[in-house]
Design goal:
Number of helices: 8
Largest sheet: 7 strands, mixed
Radius of gyration: 17 Å
Structural class: alpha/beta
Order of helices and strands: EEEHEHEHHHEHEHH
Distance between the termini: 24 Å
Helix content: 25-40%
Strand content: 5-15%
Length: 263
């Protein structure tokens, strides 16, 4: 099974945007994004254990998974300008993909990290398997606003989604972090003003991952600020490498499927 899915094929587009979902998220989260950007072909990453890859074992090592995504992107031989956008856990995955691509001499044109603390601030949890049990995950889902609390009372729903939600949480908790400036591409960091898990200063620390230009934006909303108001204005101008002049994002035609969790 391929790691990436093309939302709307545009073979003559000059640019690509690869989108990485949050923990427990699916590629459907970004289904409305292709309509937002002219001249950009949008792809989404599907992690194993959900959506079309439901029958596959979930990933357990974030860095290994990211390198597998990078290998697929390199093997495709697409030389178009390629930017990476990741939200929450997806920002960390996108960063590690960017590192792998850079090491292979095929670095991305830009990394956009949303709703996540910088890799240099992440410390692995040696007890991740016990720290993130079902009860801890459920409390976090409610805190972040990524799941209707009533869904967590539905045992059939919990039995269906908790295996891959838990796998993602534990995988992220085991991530060893990374220091230094492994990237040379421009980096943009975005965070919701009321995000309960990612303080502004921890999101702003993404500046430390690159020797290239850095932009930082605080947007209205909480951890899932982009579910109702995707940052299309900022992302579109970043893709075109223009200064941001309009901070307000455009509203999508339909509400995305955020998935049952954010992490």
């Amino acid at each position: 099974m391929l790691w990436t899915q093309c939302v709307e094929p545009r073979p003559f587009a000059a640019r690509r945007l690869i989108c990485f979902p949050h923990a427990g998220g699916s590629p459907y989260f970004f289904r409305s994004w292709a309509r937002a950007f002219d001249g950009v072909e949008v792809h989404t990453v599907c992690y194993p254990g959900r959506a079309e890859r439901f029958a596959e074992p979930c990933a357990s090592d974030l860095v290994v998974m990211a390198r597998q995504v990078a290998d697929e992107l390199i093997a495709a031989g697409d030389t178009r300008s390629t930017a990476l956008f990741g939200h929450s856990m997806g920002a960390t995955v996108a960063f590690e993909v960017a590192c792998a691509l850079t090491e292979a001499g095929a670095g991305p044109s830009r990394l956009i990290a949303s709703g996540a603390r910088a890799p240099s601030l992440m410390v692995p949890d040696p007890a991740a398997d016990t720290t993130w049990d079902d009860a801890s995950i459920a409390r976090t889902l409610i805190e972040l606003g990524g799941t209707d609390p009533e869904l967590l009372e539905n045992q059939a729903f919990v039995k269906l989604v908790m295996p891959y939600i838990g796998a993602d949480f534990r995988m992220l908790a085991r991530y060893p972090g990374r220091t230094g400036r492994p990237l040379g591409c421009p980096v943009t960091a975005l965070v919701g003003a009321s995000d309960p898990r990612v303080p502004r200063e921890e999101a702003a620390a993404w500046e430390t991952v690159t020797g290239g230009p850095f932009r930082f934006h605080v947007l209205p909303g909480e951890h899932f600020y982009l579910a109702d108001e995707p940052p299309f204005g900022i992302v579109g101008e970043v893709l075109l490498d223009r200064p941001v002049t309009t901070p307000g994002p455009a509203r999508p035609a339909g509400r995305p499927d955020r998935g049952p969790v954010s992490g």
